[in-house]
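Table S2 (text version). Query chain:
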Amino acid sequence: MIKLKDILNESTESDRLSKEINKSILKIDDSMSYADFAHAVAKVLKDEYGTHNYIPFIKELKKKL
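Corresponding structure-token output:
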């Protein structure tokens, strides 16, 4: 069972992370194309997270969109 405190912690962490990602994008290119952004995210996934996280990441992303 998922606990409310876990959901709130996740939300707080993802909110903080999204703000930092947005700040970084603005520093690099405030009109960054979606293709460049997607390629950069894919590179981070490949280089830092490993193939076992691809499908869970995409599933979670689709749920949030």
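Notes on Table S2: The helical segments are 4-28, 34-49, 54-64. Residues 41 and 47 are 10 Å apart (CA to CA).
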